[in-house]
């Protein structure tokens, strides 16, 4: 289905985690201009995007930390934007040159869905945190309010 989508749409991005590293780097640059809690949230999202190449590196038997550092270094240059994890050779390679591609629409949908799920979790967490504020601990059973009428100590 991914191949059909790529052919139909015609828009693709380099695979092997290269697009995630590139987006993460651009997000970090943007986060520096924001500051405060928002900066931390943006950096956290960038770190999450790098889980894709980190997992690919681990699967290929590469050191995930070294791989992420090397990918960031290569993406910092002008020609390294499509460098990603070559899982077959367990090294970094130019995914575009190797014709390792992914449909843009599928990648966009995956990132959007991930962000929406994270937002829902944060909202639920806020609701739970807000509902527990202002309320004391429930009294022990039989001490009033803890049980329905007639269900006290027997």
What does this 3D model show about the protein?
By secondary structure, this protein is mainly α. The chain contains six helices and four strands, in the order αβααααβββα. It has helices at residues 2-9, 18-32, 36-49, 51-59, 64-76, 104-132, and strands at 12-14, 83-86, 91-94, 101-103. Strand 2 (83-86) and strand 3 (91-94) form a beta hairpin. Helix 2 packs antiparallel against helix 3 (36-49), helix 2 crosses helix 5 (64-76) and helix 4 (51-59) crosses helix 5. The protein is globular. The relative contact order is 0.14.
What is the secondary structure topology, with strand pairs?
Blueprint: H1 2-9, E1 12-14, H2 18-32, H3 36-49, H4 51-59, H5 64-76, E2 83-86, E3 91-94, E4 101-103, H6 104-132
Helix pairs in contact: 2-3, 2-5, 4-5
């Amino acid at each position: 289905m991914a191949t059909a989508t790529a052919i139909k749409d015609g828009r693709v991005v380099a695979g092997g985690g290269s697009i995630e590293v590139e987006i993460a780097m651009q997000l970090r640059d943007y986060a520096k201009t924001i500051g405060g809690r928002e900066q931390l949230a943006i950096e956290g999202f960038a770190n999450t995007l790098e889980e894709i190449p980190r997992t690919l590196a681990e699967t290929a038997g590469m050191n995930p930390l070294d791989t992420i550092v090397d990918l960031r270094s290569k993406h910092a240059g002008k020609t390294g934007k499509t460098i990603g994890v070559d899982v077959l050779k367990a090294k970094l390679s130019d995914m575009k040159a190797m014709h390792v591609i992914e449909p843009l629409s599928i990648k966009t949908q995956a990132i959007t869905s991930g962000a929406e799920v994270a937002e829902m979790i944060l909202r639920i967490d806020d609701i739970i945190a807000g509902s527990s504020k202002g309320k004391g601990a429930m009294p022990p059973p039989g001490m009033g309010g803890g049980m329905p009428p007639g269900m006290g100590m027997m």
